[in-house]
Amino acid sequence: MRGPHVRAGGARWCARARRPQRRQPCHVMHFCPDCRLFTCNITPAGLAALLAGVRASPSRLELLFLDHNPLGDEGATMLADWLATSPALQSLQLRDCNITVAGLAALLAGVCASPSRLEALCLSDNPLGDEGAAMLSDWLATSPPLQTLWLSCCGITDAGADRLLAAIRVNDLLTKLHLRNLLSVDPTSGALNTVTPSHLDAIKDALADQTGRAARRAALQSVAQVVLPPPSIPASLASANCGNDAEIAEASL
């Protein structure tokens, strides 16, 4: 859903659509695992109504896109509270939502407390700066399940890029980090990143190493799963032998 006239009323409509009520005119949102509300002028009041509907629905929301809505830090805090009880969310997009480091701190706390495995997070075009990059770096250093992070036009300099690079080198899963400014985008809330090409190349190399490690890990796990015991080993010991081979494969990483 896209458009400047949705606002809080539209968010409340989407919330009602997710509730399993009788004589419901539209059950699309109830069964849909994703919610996309771009440029809808949704404020924290509308977000509260939307999240209330999500909580009341038995469906498991996996994707939530709220790009270009004036949520601010208040909205980020609401999302953090909801994330703490959201079991299925995999992708969250908050581009150009006027979120500062205060909202980011609340959001990361909610992500850490969430039972879901968030794999993609977009925070581009928000005024986070190097302080926000440092917060994200501390979180990434704990190796969360996140695989893709967007931070274009966030006012990040080489200092913030250095913190992110250090986190990537100890992170186990992140394979994509977007720091380049999109020339087709005119940021309204964020600011252009001023990361030098040398820092961008260093981050690119670190992510390439990470992708290589992930590929090797996946390959070894696949080999460990298909290892068969020699014919001379009784069938009753087959599972134990495969378990040892798997342990050896993991130890060789």
Compute the number of strand runs: 6
Number of helices in the DSSP assignment:
9
Q: Return residue spans where pLDDT drops below 50 for at least 5 consecutive residues.
A: 4-8, 15-30, 226-235, 237-253
Strand content: 5-15%
Order of helices and strands: HHEHEHEHEHEHEHH
Largest sheet: 6 strands, parallel
Radius of gyration (Å): 22 Å
Trace the largest sheet across and list its strands.
1-2-3-4-5-6
Structural class by secondary-structure content: alpha/beta
Task: Give the N-to-C terminal Cα separation.
Answer: 45 Å
Helical proportion, percent range:
40-55%
Mean pLDDT: 78
Shape: globular
Write the layout of secondary structure elements.
Elements: H1 7-17, H2 28-31, E1 34-36, H3 44-56, E2 63-65, H4 72-83, E3 91-93, H5 101-113, E4 120-122, H6 129-140, E5 148-150, H7 158-170, E6 176-178, H8 197-226, H9 238-251
Parallel strand pairs: 1-2, 2-3, 3-4, 4-5, 5-6
Helix pairs in contact: 1-3, 3-4, 4-5, 5-6, 6-7, 7-8, 8-9
Question: What this model shows, in words?
Answer:
The structure is a single chain. The protein is α/β, with parallel strands linked by helices and 253 residues long. It contains 9 helices and 6 strands; from the N terminus they run ααβαβαβαβαβαβαα. It has helices at 7-17, 28-31, 44-56, 72-83, 101-113, 129-140, 158-170, 197-226, 238-251; strands at 34-36, 63-65, 91-93, 120-122, 148-150, 176-178. The protein has a 6-stranded parallel beta sheet. α5 links the parallel β3 and β4 (120-122). Mean pLDDT is 78; it is low at 4-8, 15-30, 226-235 and 237-253.
